[in-house]
Amino acid sequence: MATAPTKQSLLHLYHSTLRTAQSFSSYNFRQYFVRRTKSVFREIQNETDPAKLAAFYEQSARELAQLKRSAIVNQLYGGGRLVVEKQQVEHERSDS
């Protein structure tokens, strides 16, 4: 019989996945993985079956590892910011 992961460990996995999704440099990938993470964890929110929770936790941990690797590759080859993203204001230095 599989033991169910604690609520705290599921929350930690959720926050780690969201943090990793936010680290993508491409806007489309970043938004997709944030939306997907929220919807997947919302579906399992009211689950009480320990076997299903354990299987979900294992699968989500594997997906997190894959997401981390993908985010690193995306950061290496990421392009410029899109128009829909908030632009950071660059302050000019004046020498006078």
TrEMBL record:
Gene Ontology terms describing biological process: iron-sulfur cluster assembly
Any one Pfam family match given in the protein's UniProt record, by short name: Complex1_LYR
Annotated signal sequence range: none
Residue ranges constituting the Complex 1 LYR protein domain according to the UniProt record: 9-65
One GO cellular component term: mitochondrion
Top-level taxon in the UniProt lineage: Eukaryota
Family, as annotated: Belongs to the complex I LYR family.
Protein name, as recorded: Complex 1 LYR protein domain-containing protein
Organism: Trametes coccinea (strain BRFM310) (Pycnoporus coccineus)
